[in-house]
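STRUCTURE REQUEST FORM
Protein name: Peptidase S1 domain-containing protein
Source organism: Chironomus riparius
Requested output: structure tokens
Priority: standard
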Amino acid sequence: MCKKMPTFINFGAIQRATRVEILKVFGIMLVISLVLMLILSLILKSFYECEGAFGDTVHLDLRDHPNYDRLYNGKCIEEYHGEEDHKFPFIARFVVVNDTEKFVFCSGSLISDDIVVTAAHCLAGITYAKLEVHVGTASNIEKFINFTEKDIKIHSKYDSKKFTNDIALIRLNRKFDPSTISTLCIPFDDEIIRKNLTMGEWDVEKIRINDPKIIETTVNGIDNLKCGEYFHNLVEVVQQTAPSNEISELNKKLVNKNNQKEVRFEQFCTEKKSVTPGNSGMPVYGNDLKTGAPTIYGFVSFGVKKEFGEDLPTVLTRIYDYRHWILCHSY
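Status: completed
Returned output:
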């Protein structure tokens, strides 16, 4: 009978196998780390690098931005010594020139000494050569003309049917005169649901003459859920009498993928303010709660015709959600 051979444990082989396994695990962890670092770098790149709207790609740390203090830190508006009756030295009016007349068709806000923010739908599809941007007081208007495509930045994801990302910038071809014109800040915080915000409204009877008048109004911010309910009730009430194409257009702007009417996160509403001609892009602003500086919280994107009701909200583009985009493209 054969003797059973004793079993020997090859500790050297085990150690070698263990080292191999450790190296494999280390290699896997290294690959995972590299992938995570790549993802993180892409995310950071989206915040701190953007294709320049008016030139080359820029690498941007927001606090190093040349307009950072002016846009954020309450240095954006100077003491104003212009006409006493001119309360809106930061509003730009967009004038279209045709064969017989000039008239205001949209509005915008000066946020630096050569950048105007406005609604994308104001600029999409227009002939830039026919655009004039007027800023300043009634007796001292500065006119900016000869715009080309390189002077205009429309948000790349603007949807003309749903009015999402309804924001654009215009770079003026020179800096304005600070003695008669000033600017609005962009907000530190998302403090939209506030009372007693200010909005201008063009006097419809005088909008087509050389000296258009702005009527000052006070509006209150409302939360998006409540705003969506307003529009839901509106469609339910008027769908039997309103032209089908108008209801269809409203639905396109408000209905989400679940067939629910909503105001999107990057939008907000002010209550009881129907929109009049030329008011697209008109700012809604108030004093920043921290700095006291006049600050733009949004601008008019769309609303509902007055014949549908006087107490319907206006939907605005929420500036806070586009603060990085604005800084990137106003470099």
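Reviewer notes: Residues 200 and 216 are 5 Å apart (CA to CA). Confidence is low (pLDDT under 50) at residues 51-62, 72-85, 255-261.
Form closed.
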